Amino acid sequence: MTAFWYVISGLGILAAIINFSLAFARRKQPMIATARLIAGLVALALPVVIIYGKLVAHLHPPFPLDWPTVFIATGAFVFAVLLLPSYVDKTEKASLQERAERVVRPANATIRLEKPGIGDEWVN
Fold first, then answer.
1. Backbone phi, then psi, for 2, in 5-degree steps?
2. Burial readout 58-72 (b: 16 or more C-beta within 10 A, e: otherwise)
3. 3-state DSSP call for residue 123?
4. What's the pTM?
5. CA 29, CA 22: separation in Å to the nearest integer?
6. Chain segment 94-109, per-residue pLDDT in tens
7. 3-state secondary structure 54-121
């Protein structure tokens, strides 16, 4: 086995650990937990297939593994198992206008002004 197989297997195991731990941490949000669980299974499947194919079945890829191919394959794997699930994790943020409407007090609200030494004053 070349260094690429060791690196991609280690990366797959690390990505699986990350995704499983994030799925456990977000277990109260079922959609996010499911996406992370699926990503963890996909990440764990790659090292299992590599180890089986290289050590047990003695299979080799049908295409040459040049460095550009290795670099692209590693990038695609990282994107698929680490970045895609994070898009599910993002929530929609309220616009500036929506946040301002929640914070601003209504025009007919009565507020209490405290003046030191004078007392309190109620103002509409």
1. -85, 175
2. eeeeeeeeeeeebee
3. strand
4. 0.65
5. 11
6. 677 777 777 666 666 6
7. HHHCCCCCCCCCCHHHHHHHHHHHHHHHHHHHHHHHCCCCCCHHHHHHHHCCCCCCCEEEEECCCEEE
Residue 21: left if φ>0, alpha if ψ -120 to 50, beta else—which one?
alpha
Tokens in use for 23?
A: 């799925």
How many alpha carbons fall within 13 Å on the CB side of residue 19?
29
For tokens 């699986």, the residue is 16
Q: What phi, psi does 70 have (nearest 5°)?
A: -65, -45
Identify the pLDDT of residue 96: 75
Query: What pLDDT digit, counting tens, does each position of 8-47 carry?
Result: 889 889 999 999 999 999 888 888 899 899 999 999 998 8
Q: Reduce the DSSP state of residue 122 to 3 states and report it.
A: strand
